[in-house]
Amino acid sequence: MKKCIYCKKEVSDESVVDFCESCGLKVWGDRMFNAIIQNMKDAKSRGDF
């Protein structure tokens, strides 16, 4: 398991980012957080990750 870079809470190894959803929403807000997650998922599926 990975740990959130902000609060150290456990994050799934399959997560495309190194922070938990709670911290991501606090830092970037709903729209930007969702855009980051989607872009990272797209990059991972293309093999660019």
Please give a structural write-up:
The protein has 49 residues and is mainly α. It is built from one helix and two strands; from the N terminus they run ββα. It has one helix at 21-46, and strands at 2-3, 10-11. A two-stranded antiparallel sheet has the order 1-2. A hairpin with a 6-residue loop joins strand 1 (2-3) and strand 2. The longest helix is centred in the C-terminal third of the chain and has 26 residues, at 21-46. The two termini are 18 Å apart. The relative contact order is 0.17. The model has no long low-confidence stretch (mean pLDDT 94).
Q: How would you concisely characterize the structure shown here?
A:
By secondary structure, this protein is mostly helical. Helices cover 53% and strands 8% of the residues.
Topology:
Elements (H helix, E strand, L loop, with lengths): L1 E2 L6 E2 L9 H26 L3
Antiparallel strand pairs: 1-2
| Major β-sheet profile | 2 strands, antiparallel
First and last CA, distance = 18 Å
Give the neighbour order of strands across the main sheet: 1-2
SSE string, helices as H and strands as E = EEH
Number of helices: 1
> How much helix, percentage-wise, in residues?
40-55%
| Regions with little confidence, pLDDT below 50 for 5+ residues | none
- Cα shape: flat
Can you give the mean pLDDT? 94
Features:
single chain, 49 residues, mainly alpha, two-stranded antiparallel ribbon, 53% helix, flat
